[in-house]
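ESCALATION

Customer reports they have been waiting on this structure for their group meeting. Please prioritize. Original submission:
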Amino acid sequence: GGSPEPRAAEAIAMVKAYVEMTQEAFLQHPSFGSGSPSFRGEEAVRADVERLVYAKAGPRLMALVSDAESDRELDDKMEAMSWLDWAHLDVSCLSPPPGGDADGGELGRGSDPDPSAWDRAKAALAGVKGAWSPKDKLEQFMKTSRSITE
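Update from on-call: job pushed to the front of the queue and completed.
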């Protein structure tokens, strides 16, 4: 584990600098900046540029920072926690339905989770992998959190 190797760190710094430079260029351009009739705000321009650049560069960056040792470590930790299931978690989407039997029962009844809520939470978390930009990843984590706590 630890920091990315120098080559990866250099590539990440280059992409970050390119994103910042491109964002500023877009904001200064009359077609995209505040003088444009279609201007949606500086934050929207920044998010769009970041999303585009990271979508294109993301797979190559991930290949540079792939760390088989850390991946194995994470796999080992996940395996060690395989005993953990939804009943150990304190999240509202997994609560028994109103009037449900808290002592157990079939999936979706009693203390078993609502399968549709559980599926939505898992789908939201799986969506993180498809998000490339830091902002999109954070938004996907927030969506996951909301699906679990609502």
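Sent to customer with the following note: Confidence is low (pLDDT under 50) at residues 101-110.
Escalation resolved.
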